[in-house]
Amino acid sequence: MHANKGDHLVVEGNKVGLQPREGEIVEVRGEHGAPPYVVLWADGHEGLTYPGPDAHLRPEE
């Protein structure tokens, strides 16, 4: 996965009925856009994230 600051990380629900989580990448700590990422989630909390296989990027608009 290769991300840039401002891209959105979308984590799909891994169980039936769970809604996807989405947040803005505010810092890329890996080399050349690699994880980990500091993400500002839609609920207002911020955290260091290593995306799993259920995650994908939505480029900055």
From TrEMBL:
Q: Which InterPro entries match?
A: DUF1918 (IPR015035)
Ranges for domain DUF1918 come to: 1-56
Protein name per the record: DUF1918 domain-containing protein
* Lineage, uppermost ranks: Bacteria, Bacillati, Actinomycetota, Actinomycetes, Propionibacteriales
